[in-house]
TrEMBL record:
It catalyses: Hydrolyzes single-stranded DNA or mismatched double-stranded DNA and polynucleotides, releasing free uracil. Keywords: 4Fe-4S, DNA damage, DNA repair, Hydrolase, Iron, Iron-sulfur, Metal-binding. InterPro entries: Type-4_UDG (IPR053423), UDG_Type-4/5 (IPR051536), Ura-DNA_glyco_family4 (IPR005273), Uracil-DNA_glycosylase-like (IPR005122), Uracil-DNA_glycosylase-like_sf (IPR036895). The lineage of its organism: Archaea, Methanobacteriati, Methanobacteriota, Thermococci, Thermococcales. Residues 35-189 form the Uracil-DNA glycosylase-like domain. Gene3D superfamilies: Uracil-DNA glycosylase-like domain. One of its GO terms (biological process) is DNA repair. GO terms for molecular function: 4 iron, 4 sulfur cluster binding; metal ion binding; uracil DNA N-glycosylase activity. Belongs to the uracil-DNA glycosylase (UDG) superfamily. Type 4 (UDGa) family. It is an enzyme of class 3 (hydrolase). It comes from the Archaea. This is Type-4 uracil-DNA glycosylase. Its EC number is 3.2.2.27.
Length: 197
């Protein structure tokens, strides 16, 4: 009988690949690649843009100031970090926290695709414009500005069933544009009702 590898085995193998990756020049300037963190058996996956300084230091996603905001938003809807899966579209930190380039996204996106295939989430929450643009395109939606579509629920069909995509502002927005924090909180409340439906 053929034994099917568990989600954990598949993810560990993938994470190992990410840690050794040299597909784009970012590997030369990283301290640690940041594959992702959280539950492999979750229904909900958060996809950010790229690691920042603290993420690069610790090898974990969303551990800096924006990560604190994300933790508060999760707590607001009764979720713990350990109950969701958090990753980024680009797994290594771009120098000086600049935006990821198209080449970097293209080189790294297959890892994200594999993570989605392994976890098979019911809901993908995209945090920020780069992950939103990539995920929307991947599932056949038009790419619109995040300011227009944040908090909306998009339904997509996949080989493993229905999936909901919820674009949101990046949590960092709450740090430099505090007036958007309330919008983030409202979007998270919508997420809560989607999860409980």
């Amino acid at each position: 009988m053929i034994s099917v590898p568990s989600k954990e085995e598949l993810m560990k193998k993938l994470e190992e690949k990410i840690r050794k990756c040299k597909k784009c020049p970012l590997w030369e300037v990283r301290t640690n690649p940041v594959p992702g963190d959280g539950s492999y058996d979750t229904k909900i996956m958060f996809v950010g843009e790229a690691p920042g300084y603290w993420e690069d230091q610790m090898g974990l996603p969303f551990v800096g100031k924006a990560g604190k905001v994300l933790d508060e938003l999760l707590k607001l809807i009764g979720l713990k970090r350990s109950e969701v899966y958090i990753t980024n579209i680009v797994k290594c930190r771009p120098p000086n926290n600049r935006d990821p380039t198209e080449e970097e996204i293209k080189a790294c996106a297959p890892y994200l695709d594999a993570q989605i295939d392994i976890i098979k989430p019911k809901v993908i929450v995209t945090l920020g414009r780069f992950s939103t643009a990539y995920i929307m395109k991947k599932y056949g939606f038009n790419v619109e500005p995040i300011s227009k579509i944040h908090g909306r629920v998009f339904e997509a069909r996949t080989l493993f069933g229905k999936i909901y995509i919820v674009p949101m502002y990046h949590p960092a927005v709450a740090l430099y544009r505090p007036q958007l924090r309330r919008e983030l909180e409202e979007d998270f409340k919508k997420l809560k009702s989607l999860l409980s439906s």
